Structure formats: C-alpha cells, structure tokens
C-alpha cells in the first residue's frame, strides 16, 4: 500500500514554504484550475464525489453541508447578498493538535483550500477564526495571506478571473465554546460566544445573518488535492469507506506521542503500537479516548478497531478529531475524568441549565469521589447527570461531549469508582 | 347642540386589530388527548394557551423563545402508540399537524424536575426573607415540577450585588440565569447599561459598575425576573407579602396613555403598583413613572383635613352644608382638571352650570387638546398595539421617552417589523427571538425622529438629526401637502423650493417611506404646546389615506375626558381672568393652575369672594384658598379616565376613604345644595351619579351598562390568604369590625367574593392576578384567550368616537390663542422646556426617588452656541424671571441639540409657566456657583431625610390604622 501524505508532505515547521516555493511544489494549481476552468457547481460535484467528510469531529459530508447554502434566483433580492466561508481554526479540544501542524507548517495550503471552498459556495469574504494562543500560526498565516494578495490569489479578479475573495484572519479571545460553529460566528460578530439555536443553520442564517459555511482546517486542506487529483484518487487513499487520509494523533504515556497523516481507517493497534511506539515501559493500556476529550472511552479490547467514522460509532464512541488520548494503568481514571470535566465546566458558556449547572455538579461529585468522600449514591447521581446533559436536552453539543468520557468511564472503569468509594481514597495515589 | 357630541361605542370590534392574523389550527395530541393548536406557534405558548401547566422561565410572551432554561421539556412521540419519543423543548418547537406529545411522560417530567434541581444548586434558601416570596415564579415552577429534596452537596456560588439606583434592588445570588432581564433591558427596551457578563455558572447580570439604571423601563425587571434578583426597592422598604395586599385594578395617572395597573395596599398605605395586562395598551410592561410615580398618595403633602370652615370632628354632611352656606356667593365658578376623573369634572360642570365651568386650561392648551380630540373622534388615534405593528413611524417634536414612555417602547418594537418580515421570508418564526435578531441584524422599519434634541430612540431611528421646531413644522406641512396630492415628489420640490436641499432630501425620503408603508403612524404630543404643529397633523389626517394612523398625545391622564366636557360656554383660563369674580365663589378642583404664575394665582384668590380648593395634596393654590376640602387620590377613588385614544377606562379605589376625605365628585355633590341647582342632591352613589351624568351631561360616556350587572356579584380585593384581618387593629380595639362596604363598585373590601373568577362570565378587570399554582403575575396567561392575546373576560370598552366637523366655538377661540408655541427667545436662542420622565409634572417633585433621579437644574445648548455665553467660558448661568426672582442653572453644551435652541430644566417648571416668565439670562459669580452647588447637595440630603421620615411615618401609621380602612361605621 502506498502511503501518500498529501496534507502534510509540504509541512515545514521550522520555516513554512513561502509563496514562490509553495507554487514551485504545485501550490495554488487547484485555484487556477477551479476559478478558471470549473464552475462552482462543478467544484461542488467533485468534492461530493470525493466523499470528503468533516474532520472537525462530527464527520458530516462536506459537500452536503455546502449544498444547504440557498441558491437564490437572480431576481431574489438575497441573490446579491454576501455569503461567507469561515475556517474553524479554534482548535481547543484537549488532546487535539493536528490543525496547529497544518497552520504552522503549511499556511498557504489552507489559503489555497479556502479559495476553493469560497468559490464553490459563492462566498466573496472568508474568515480564519484562529485559536488565540496560536501566535506563531497567526504570524505565519498573516504573512501567507499578504503574499496571496500580492500574487493575485486573493482580492479582486483572482488569477484574471472575475472571482473575488477577501480573506481575514481573526484571532479568538479564547474560549473552547468558540469551536462550536454558531458560537464561533457570534464571537466573530463581536457578541457573547453563546451557541445559537438551530434551526436556522448557519448555511441559511450565519455570520451577520447571511449564508455561512464553517469548515475545519483539516477538512479544507484536502480540497486542493481533490481538485488536482480527482475524487477517485482521494477515495483510494483510505483503507475504509471514509475517503482520504486523516491526521491521527496520540498523547498520553506512549513511547512517541505525535501526529501522523495516515490512510483513513487504520486500526487503533497500528496507530498506537506502530506509529506511537506502544506504551511507555512498565505501563499497560487501560483505555483511550479515540478522538479528543469529548469522545467515549474505549479499552484495550478495542485495539483492532478501525479508526473510521462508522466503525468507532459502532463501538460506542466517536472518531472525533482522531487525536487519541491514552490512559495507562498507573493513572487514575476518576482523576482523568475529573480533570476533563473541570475543563468542560470551566468552558461552559453558561447559557443552558443542564450544561451550566450540570457540569459543575459533576465536578463537585467527582471531586468528592476522587478525594475518597464519595458514596454509592454519587454514582447514581452521576448516571442521572449523564442523562440530564445528553443530546437534545442541552442547547449545544458541549455538555453531551462532556458526558461521553464520563458515561464511558462509569461503564468501563466502574471498579475504579467503587474502589474510591469503598477505600475512602484514591487507589492510584502514589503511583504517579 | 355641541357638534362634538361623541358617539359612544361599546363594541370591541372598534378596537380589534386589522392585523389579527388568523392562523390555521391543527390537531395535536397532548397526553393522548386531541387539541387544536395554531400551526407554527411555539408549543409552549400553544400549550399554555390551552391552560395546561407547563413550567418555563426564559420564554416570555412578548420576548419570544431562546431555549436557555430547558424547563419546558416535553416528550414528542414518534407515533400514536406513544412508546418511543424524544425530549424536546416546547418553546423551541413549532406546532406541526398530528404531533403526539407527552407532558406527563415520565422522562420529560423527571428532566423538568432535574432542571429545577440544577438551578437550585446555587439558589439561596432565603424565601422567607426574599421580597419575591409568595409571588415567585421560581417557587411556583419548583412546586409544579415536584422538586423538593436537595442532592447537590457543594457550596453555592456567591456574587457581589450592585447599587442600581433608588428604584430597583439587586440580589444576584438568587439568579437562575434565565437571561430574561438582559433580553428585556437590552434587546426589548434598548437599554445600554446592563448586560450578561462572565460565563459558566458565574454569569452575572448587571451594569459594568454600580450606578442608577438608565432605562425608563428598569422597573419591569421586577416583573420580568422570575425570582427575586430584581425587586421593587420602595416596596421592599415598606413591605408586605402579595397575599397580604389588598389590590384593585387601576389606571396609571402618569400620562394620557392610560396604562392598566394593579395597585396594592396594606394597613392604609399604598405599597406598590404593578403592570395589569391589557393586550391593546400596555401589554406586559409599564414605564417607571407608572410603577413608582404613585408615591405622592402616601406623601407628607396629603390634605386630610377640611380647612377654612369649622366642623365637629366627625364629618356630618348636614353640618358641612350649614358651614358652607355662610360662603354662598351670587355665582359659582368651577375650575376642572385634566387629572381629575370624568365623574368629578362632569359633576363640577353640573354643579356650576355650563356658563361657569372653566377648563382650567389656557386657550393654547385647549386648542392643542382640541386637535388631539379631533383625531380621537375620527378614530384615527393608534393604540399601542397598532403602533407596535407599524412599519413606518414619524415622531414630530416630542420626546416620547420622557413624556409618554410606554409609547416610546412601542415605537422601538415597531422598528423590528422589517426584521420579522425578513425572518418570515427565511422561514424563521417570529418567536425565535435570537434567530430573528441574527437574520435581520440592523435591519429596521423606518423611524423618523423630527426633533430638536436627541432622544433615547435615536439608536433605532432612520433619521434623528436635530432641527429647529420651525423646520419640523414645515416638514409636517409638506407631508400634509404630500398626502393631499397625487404627485408627491414633484410637489415636494416646489414646496421646499428655496429651502435647504437637505430638508428636501429628507422630505422625499419620508414621502417614499410613507408611500411604501402599509401601516404608517405619525406621532406628536403636547409637551411644547406646539399648536401649529398639532394643527398641521390634524389637517394631514383629514386627507391622509385610511391606513395612516396617528397618535396625538395629550399631557394628562384625563385630558381627553376634560376636552369632551368642554362646550362653547366653557371658560379658558384667560376668560376666567377677564371675568369679574368679586361676587363669585370659585371652586378649583384638583387643579393647582400650574399654567399660571404665582401672581395670577394670587390675583384669583384676591378677586374671588371665596376660593374653594378641592384636592388631595397641598400646592400653591391650596395655600391661597379660603376653604380647602380634602379629596381622595386615584388610589382611593372610583372613576373613569379617558385616554388619548378616547378609551374611557375605569379605575377603582384600593382602600376605603377615610373621612373627611371625599372624592371630588362627592364634594361637588355635597356642595350642590349650597352652590348649585340642587340637581346632584341625593346622588350619593357613584352609580346614581353616573346615570345622571349620562342623561344630562354631554361628553360623559355611558358607563352604567359596564358596571350595573356586576354590583350583585362582587369580586374580592383581597386574596384568599389575606392574613391578620381580625388582628390588624387589635392594638386599638378588640372588637372585630364589620368589613367596609363598597356599595358602588364591583369589588369588595374583603376576601369574600368570587375573586374575579365568578364563572358568570363577568367582564371585570382583575384586581390582582392569581391562579392555583401560579402565585406570580405570570398567572395572567390563565385568563387570556391565548398567551399574549385578549383577556378571556375582557372588560367592555367604552370609546369616545364621533364626527370631526370643526365646531364654531373652536374656530373662534383658535384665532384668539395668543401664541401658538410655548417657547421664549433669549439671547437669540429659542427657549424650550426639557422633558424628563421623573420631573414632568407637579407630583414628581413629591416623590423622593424621582427627585433623586431628576436632572439638576440645567440649560442645554448646542456646543456651537456656547459663544453666546461669555465666549463659552461659563459653567453656570442665572435665569431671571419677570417677578424679579431668579435661579442658577448649569449650562450644558451638547452636540445633539439643534443650533439656536436651548432646553431649560428647573423644578419650578412643573408648577408655573416658567418659559413665559424668563426675562433674561445673566452671568453668575463663582461664589454664587459654589453656593448653588452647596444648595443642590443640601437638597439631596434633605430628599433622603424626607424619604426616611416618610417611611418612618408610614411604619408608624401601620400601628394606628384608621378604623375606616378595615371597618365600616365607627
């Protein structure tokens, strides 16, 4: 099997490719092809054929998301209104750092991608909503944007076509909730970063009330390659039904934590033991979160699981961002879940009751359990809270995301919780 | 025959909205029962409209849904087997045909209980000391969900509270984060100094820093907040539980809008005013003047004794007649009042005869009010809900936010209609509050503020540049010409030829807006008595298309009633002044003659053989009177007030009269055998008087039909849980008195009576709102046909409408109105009065809280006009008056006042025609300025002391309640 790495092959973290060098390695070819030779609907059709799915965590087919942007008739007054593309680069999911690699290592690829996506949806303004702490990425992106303007890839009449695109870099003031696309839009508008009620979806009423597409960095970065090399090539990259490659990551006590662009659909075992080098000496794998902090735990029983959207779902978790967080047998799962829940409680926007008060309630309960002051009733109460904060009952997906590691920890590490309660202390104490 | 004789209409269709959209009803199955719900409405509103109990917090009928609290969760089943379903938020889900819903379904019910449990993790257990307790929506909803056992073991988060001014108290620890306060204050009422701050379970609702809330509607936070975060501060200072309040339906006496209020009383003092829902007028909100402006009825200045005649301690009518007989004069002249009830004015007119009835208004005022009346009689005066539905509003020379604030709030809502239209195009229902705001952004319906000074509606206006009053008048006339001419734009050009091209552009903008608008409304008012402008609007109305509506706003609660009693014989103040009164008794009823200078008042007192003042509070005229008769304030009286639209609305006493106080009409009746024709003798009951006035006094609406049927089945003024009835006077007497009898109104001074819910379908206003399980005023939805709609037992409306032929008497007097604009030129500046909601009538000065919030004495001028004042170097100036007195005002240059106009604010403007009296403005020495500032701070100190004294006095009188308050006949 060939191991092509289209997303990352031009990455240079020390000094990313400048415009001329990037063009030399084939950069911006896709822009010329798209804006000069293809119609927007042709671009959309290619992307649809490629089977590209969102890499931000939800795995929603990208072309389908785009297709919800209303197509107004020319006589409709809304025909001439703005549409927007937003790149969600607010990478704040604990255990996830893949976008940073792309942003710092090959910023031109993102700009190229955003021109394609904007062209496909008919947007003339695009925004990169960047995590506030990504200072280096901000500098490199701005340099790249300036170069793109200077070389006629941004601004009016891109590559002598009649297509126009302005691209703005916006650095976040720093809240996890800004990764939620409607909260991101509110933040970009200068409002409180509270998620919006859906429907209406941003594709219909997004930034400033106009049709808006929000795509993740990694999702977008696939577009130039799909345009250049076609949907069949893209589909063939993967090991399973999910097309393309995926930047998988591993953190926790593995030998070599890191990021790898691999064919979509490799197994957990391959990722953890081949690429991440297995567990550190003396440690065993107890469990792992397959795709960031807001996915359910899986265990050593799932090592042969294929890391694809459907496969991980069927196993009771989510592929999420593909950034695995490993839990070893010397670290306390209760402590880990508490740590995660503190994060979610801290990052709740405070809008809806289950999230605002429920996450804090979980933290209070877990803190007592971890400190050895928990009771059996606390476990019932945690189960109840998991149900209380589940999908459909909250305003957005933050609280359900917080529930996922908690509910699965209660399932897989039930004994650990019981031991905390029975022994009135954390049984892992001293093992750190 | 007065050609202005009103035709009286009691039909509700007169008031029914043309915009009332008929929605399709679809069948939805709720807990297995089929019900008909309006398609597309949100499920919560639809379900509440069907009188189901479904708890909620963040949703509000006027503000729509946002889905924050998650309290209204229900189950939506996939099919009729009701086996499988998912939890949905009722407030965020539109009604769809054939839905199967479970309100009682266990998972949803448990979730609702858990939402309360989650809110309670941080809610203090301070209900016993919380002002909201007993009328708390959170308490009600908690009980409704069945939550009773606390499982959360952690500590509660605490906040630091803010000082938000003298009206609203802040206790953030009680907050359940429903976001209603922010949504009302910022989104609905346009306040700028309040917001949600912070995140997670530390969201804080308040100002950036401590300080007086700037909005004129801040008091609504008290009702909007579902728990005790925002409470009524003056009420808290002299507090009683809702269940211990005796309440009566009333009408706000703050302006001519006629907002419906409910007044609460305990131990003889009035404790609070809250909004009383009326779908066509105030809806769910009143302004702070309405909520807090009643306090003068408890004030130090109340007149509670007869003075000028000797009487035995207990008031006896025949002794009074004998004592008064000594003061009989050849003729009796009566001065009516725009703030007195229609009964009192009509009784006075009957007492003195039409030739001797004086309106108490200047000719200018009369003519201005005649213009308002003309539109009222043509039925062209828009209701508040009409205004809210307008798509183009033009406000002419009136700062609505400071004069008729509730109208300003409606204007603000109207500017959102373009947003609702756009949302509808996008398939977003109008109740999806956040989504509508997102979709529409800054899109607003047209609002043109043609004004000389910026106002608090500027932020939603398409145009608000200050201009001279003459320019406003010219534009009004141009609009009038446009309305009369089929080729408006060409005409506009000729009409404004030679004038500024800017105003021409503005005119064509306005004209285009009006042409495109479906329901334009043009609003003006009487705050500057700008007669030419009002007449221009009146003329405009005569040839404006039928879909145009107007709101010409008088200045006082019953001004329209008073005008309807005026005929060709009615004396203006000018005519009264010219009259030989040397052998006349003059009865001034509820009128301190603020339109007159103190010289003119003195002159009246000297000329009149006897000056009788009937009023509830001391004022400059009562000080000069030979005889003062204590009147009841509106809180102790029954009567009718006619609002700007011509709606005759009844108000009811919240507590019995304490003799010798009588309602003004009663005094008229008591005086009739001495001063009058004797026609009122024996009409001791209001119902008798009303019958008589209906038959004999033109301009008195037929109120009998409205009340007669209810007198047999009285409603209770006191809730079922009213406590201490037998104990409250036990320190004075152990004998339990018989309840006071109120034979005149459909309400009883007791807990007895069917409590407004007699099942006979009686159309009675509710004295207070309560329903089983709903102790807060959100219980109102149980009494509406649908939430936010008409009341299910709405009181019959009496409306004065009629023909609009100009009367002969009017044509004569209008030419004799000396000036058509109440303003004065000083230093080349047009001097006008600065309106302020808390300082624009004679009673505002009697309310400590308002005195604290009123602006300091000041003169506002355009920055470019500062050069007229000693090269712009002065901070204060001295205003000198005709009577050689003077006062110092702060000179405040602002950018947003028309050049050449100056706005004067001084408390004396509320008791005298200050602008007419100004002769010059001079410089003032530094020493005088510091003395002035010293005086201001002393005044503030005195206000605070007076506030405390007043409170101490009220607390004292709680211990010594006049027996008449609780018992009959002692």
Automatic annotation (TrEMBL), chain A:
The keyword Iron applies. Residues 334-379 form the NADH-ubiquinone oxidoreductase 51kDa subunit iron-sulphur binding domain. Its EC number is 7.1.1.-. Pfam families: Complex1_51K, NADH_4Fe-4S. The keyword Iron applies. It catalyses: a quinone + NADH + 5 H(+)(in) = a quinol + NAD(+) + 4 H(+)(out). Keywords: 4Fe-4S, Flavoprotein, FMN, Iron, Iron-sulfur, Metal-binding, NAD, Oxidoreductase, Quinone, Translocase. SMART domains: NADH_4Fe-4S. One of its GO terms (molecular function) is oxidoreductase activity. Its cofactor is [4Fe-4S] cluster; FMN. NDH-1 shuttles electrons from NADH, via FMN and iron-sulfur (Fe-S) centers, to quinones in the respiratory chain. Belongs to the complex I 51 kDa subunit family. NCBIfam families: nuoF_fam (TIGR01959), PRK13596.1 (NF010120). This is NADH-quinone oxidoreductase subunit F.
Automatic annotation (TrEMBL), chain B:
Belongs to the complex I 75 kDa subunit family. The gene is nuoG. One of its GO terms (cellular component) is membrane. Keywords: 2Fe-2S, 4Fe-4S, Iron, Iron-sulfur, Metal-binding, NAD, Oxidoreductase, Quinone, Translocase, Ubiquinone. It comes from Thalassotalea litorea. The keyword NAD applies. This is NADH-quinone oxidoreductase subunit G. Residues 107-146 form the 4Fe-4S His(Cys)3-ligated-type domain. Composed of 13 different subunits. Subunits NuoCD, E, F, and G constitute the peripheral sector of the complex. Residues 804-817 have a biased composition (Polar residues). GO terms for biological process: ATP synthesis coupled electron transport.
């Amino acid at each position: 099997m060939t191991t092509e790495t289209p997303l990352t092959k031009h990455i240079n973290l020390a000094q990313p490719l400048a415009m001329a060098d990037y063009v030399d390695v084939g950069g911006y070819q896709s822009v010329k092809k798209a804006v000069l030779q293809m119609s927007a609907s042709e671009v959309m059709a290619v992307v649809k054929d490629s089977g590209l799915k969102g890499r931000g965590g939800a795995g929603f087919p990208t072309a389908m998301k785009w297709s919800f942007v209303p197509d107004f008739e020319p006589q409709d007054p809304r025909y001439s209104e703005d549409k927007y593309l937003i790149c969600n680069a607010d990478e704040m999911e604990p255990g996830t750092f893949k976008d940073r690699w792309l942003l710092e290592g090959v910023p031109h690829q993102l700009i190229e991608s955003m021109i394609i996506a904007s062209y496909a949806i008919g947007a003339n303004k695009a925004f990169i909503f960047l995590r506030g702490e990504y200072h280096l990425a901000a500098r490199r992106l701005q340099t790249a944007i300036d170069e793109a303007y200077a070389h006629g890839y941004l601004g009016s009449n891109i590559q002598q076509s009649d297509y126009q695109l302005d691209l703005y870099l916006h650095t976040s003031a720093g809240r996890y909730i800004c990764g939620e696309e409607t909260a991101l839009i509110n933040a970009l508008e200068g409002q409180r970063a509270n998620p919006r009620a859906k429907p209406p979806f941003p594709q219909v009423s997004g930034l400033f009330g106009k049709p808006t597409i929000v795509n993740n960095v990694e999702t977008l970065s696939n577009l130039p390659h799909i345009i250049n090399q076609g949907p069949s090539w893209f589909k063939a990259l993967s090991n399973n039904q999910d097309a393309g490659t995926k930047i998988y990551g591993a953190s926790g006590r593995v030998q070599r934590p890191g990021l790898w662009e691999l064919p979509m659909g490799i197994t957990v075992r391959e990722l953890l033991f081949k690429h991440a080098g297995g567990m550190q000496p003396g440690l065993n794998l107890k469990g792992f979160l397959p795709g960031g902090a807001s996915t359910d735990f899986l265990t050593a029983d799932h090592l042969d699981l294929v890391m694809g959207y459907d496969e991980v779902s069927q196993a009771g978790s989510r592929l999420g961002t593909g950034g695995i967080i490993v839990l070893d047998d010397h670290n306390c799962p209760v402590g880990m879940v508490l740590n995660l829940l503190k994060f979610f409680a801290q990052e709740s926007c405070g809008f809806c009751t289950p999230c605002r008060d429920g996450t804090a309630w979980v933290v209070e309960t877990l803190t007592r359990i971890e400190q050895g002051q928990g009771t059996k009733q606390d476990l019932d109460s945690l189960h109840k809270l998991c149900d209380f904060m589940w999908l459909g009952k909250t305003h957005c997906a933050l609280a359900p995301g917080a529930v996922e590691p908690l509910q699965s920890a209660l399932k897989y590490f039930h004994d650990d919780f019981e031991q905390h309660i029975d022994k009135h202390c954390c049984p892992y104490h001293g093992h750190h | 025959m007065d050609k202005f004789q009103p035709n009286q209409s009691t039909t509700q269709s007169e008031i029914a909205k043309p915009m009332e959209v008929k929605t399709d009803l679809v069948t939805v199955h709720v807990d297995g029962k089929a019900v008909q719900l309006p398609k597309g409405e949100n499920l919560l509103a639809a379900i509440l409209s069907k009188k189901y109990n479904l708890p909620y917090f963040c949703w509000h009928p006027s503000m729509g849904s946002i889905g924050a609290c998650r309290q209204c969760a229900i189950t939506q089943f996939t099919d009729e087997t009701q086996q499988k379903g998912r939890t949905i938020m009722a407030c965020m889900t539109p009604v769809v045909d054939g839905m199967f819903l479970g309100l009682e379904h266990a998972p949803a019910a448990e979730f609702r209980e858990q939402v309360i449990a989650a809110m309670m993790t941080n809610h203090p257990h301070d209900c016993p000391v919380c002002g909201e307790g007993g009328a708390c929506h959170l308490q009600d909803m908690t009980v409704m969900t069945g939550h009773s056992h606390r499982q959360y073991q952690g500590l509660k988060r605490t906040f630091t509270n803010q000082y938000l001014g003298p009206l609203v108290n802040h206790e953030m620890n009680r907050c359940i984060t429903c976001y209603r306060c922010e949504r009302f204050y910022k989104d609905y009422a346009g306040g700028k100094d309040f917001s949600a701050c912070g995140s997670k379970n530390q969201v804080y609702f308040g100002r950036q820093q401590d300080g007086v809330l700037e909005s004129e509607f801040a008091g609504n936070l008290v009702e909007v907040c579902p728990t005790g975060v925002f409470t009524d501060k003056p009420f808290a200072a002299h507090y009683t539980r809702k269940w211990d309040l005796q309440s009566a339906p009333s009408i706000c006496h703050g302006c001519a809008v006629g907002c419906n209020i409910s007044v609460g009383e305990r131990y003889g003092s009035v404790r609070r005013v809250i909004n009383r829902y009326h779908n066509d007028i105030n809806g769910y909100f009143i302004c702070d003047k309405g909520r807090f402006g009643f306090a003068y009825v408890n004030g130090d200045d109340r007149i509670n004794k007869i003075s000028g005649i000797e009487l035995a301690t207990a008031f006896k009518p025949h002794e009074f007649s004998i004592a008064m007989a000594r003061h009989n004069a050849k003729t009796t002249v009566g001065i009516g009042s725009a703030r007195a009830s229609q009964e009192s004015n009509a009784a006075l007119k009957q007492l003195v005869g039409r030739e001797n009835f004086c309106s108490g208004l200047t000719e200018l005022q009369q003519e201005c009010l005649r213009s308002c009346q003309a539109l009222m009689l043509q039925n062209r005066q828009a209701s508040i809900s009409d205004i809210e539905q307008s798509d183009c509003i033009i406000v002419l020379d009136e700062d609505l936010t400071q004069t008729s604030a509730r109208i300003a709030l409606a204007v603000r809502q109207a500017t959102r209609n373009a947003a609702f239209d756009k949302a509808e195009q996008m398939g977003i229902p109008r109740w999806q509050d956040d989504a509508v705001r997102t979709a529409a952004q800054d899109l607003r319906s047209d609002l043109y503020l043609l004004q000389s000074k910026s106002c608090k509606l500027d932020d939603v206006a398409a145009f608000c540049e200050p201009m001279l009053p003459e320019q406003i008048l010219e534009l009004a006339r141009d609009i009038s010409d446009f309305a009369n001419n089929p080729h408006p734009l060409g005409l506009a050009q000729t009409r404004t030829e030679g004038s500024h091209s800017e105003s021409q552009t503005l005119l064509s903008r306005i004209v285009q807006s009006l042409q495109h608008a479906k329901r334009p409304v043009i609003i003006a008012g009487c705050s500057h008595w700008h007669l030419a402008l009002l007449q221009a609007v009146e003329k405009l109305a005569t040839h404006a298309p039928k879909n145009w509506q107007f709101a010409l706003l008088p200045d006082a609660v019953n001004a329209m009633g008073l005008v309807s009693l005026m005929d060709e014989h009615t004396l203006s103040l000018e005519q009264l002044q010219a009259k030989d009164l040397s052998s006349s008794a003059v009865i001034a009823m509820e009128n301190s003659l603020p339109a007159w200078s103190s010289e003119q008042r003195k002159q009246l007192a000297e000329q009149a053989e006897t000056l009788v003042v009937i009023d509830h509070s001391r004022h400059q005229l009562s000080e000069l009177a030979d005889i003062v008769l204590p009147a009841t304030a509106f809180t102790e009286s029954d009567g009718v007030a006619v609002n700007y639209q011509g709606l005759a609305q009844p108000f009811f006493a919240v507590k019995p009269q304490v003799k010798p106080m009588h309602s003004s009409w009663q005094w008229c009746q008591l005086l009739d055998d001495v001063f009058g024709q004797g026609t009122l003798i024996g009409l001791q009951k209001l119902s008798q008087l009303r019958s008589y006035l209906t038959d004999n006094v033109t301009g008195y609406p037929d109120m009998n039909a409205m009340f007669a049927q209810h007198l047999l089945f009285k409603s209770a003024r006191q809730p079922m849980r009213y406590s201490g009835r037998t104990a409250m006077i036990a320190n004075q007497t152990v004998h339990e008195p018989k309840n006071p009898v109120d034979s005149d109104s459909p309400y009883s001074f007791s807990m007895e009576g069917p409590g407004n819910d007699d099942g006979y379908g009686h159309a009675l206003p509710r004295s207070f709102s309560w329903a089983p399980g709903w102790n807060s005023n959100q219980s109102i939805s149980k009494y509406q046909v649908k939430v936010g709609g008409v009341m299910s037992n709405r009181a019959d409306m009496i409306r004065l409408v009629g023909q609009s032929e100009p009367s002969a008497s009017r044509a004569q007097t209008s030419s004799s109105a000396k000036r058509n604009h109440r303003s004065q030129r000083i230093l080349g500046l047009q001097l006008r009065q600065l309106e302020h909601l808390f300082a624009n009538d004679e009673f505002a000065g009697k309310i400590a809280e308002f005195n604290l919030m009123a602006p300091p004495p000041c003169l506002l001028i355009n920055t470019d006009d500062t050069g007229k004042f000693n090269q712009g170097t002065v901070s204060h100036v001295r205003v000198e008056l005709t009577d050689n007195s003077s006062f110092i005002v702060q000179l405040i240059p602002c950018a947003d006042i028309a050049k050449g106009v100056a706005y004067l604010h001084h408390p004396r403007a509320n008791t005298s025609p200050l602008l007419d009296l100004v002769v010059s403005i001079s410089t003032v020495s530094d020493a005088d300025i510091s003395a002035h500032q010293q005086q201001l701070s002393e005044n503030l100190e005195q206000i605070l002391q007076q506030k405390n004294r007043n409170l101490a006095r009220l607390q004292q009188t709680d211990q010594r309640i006049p027996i008449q308050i609780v018992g009959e006949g002692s």
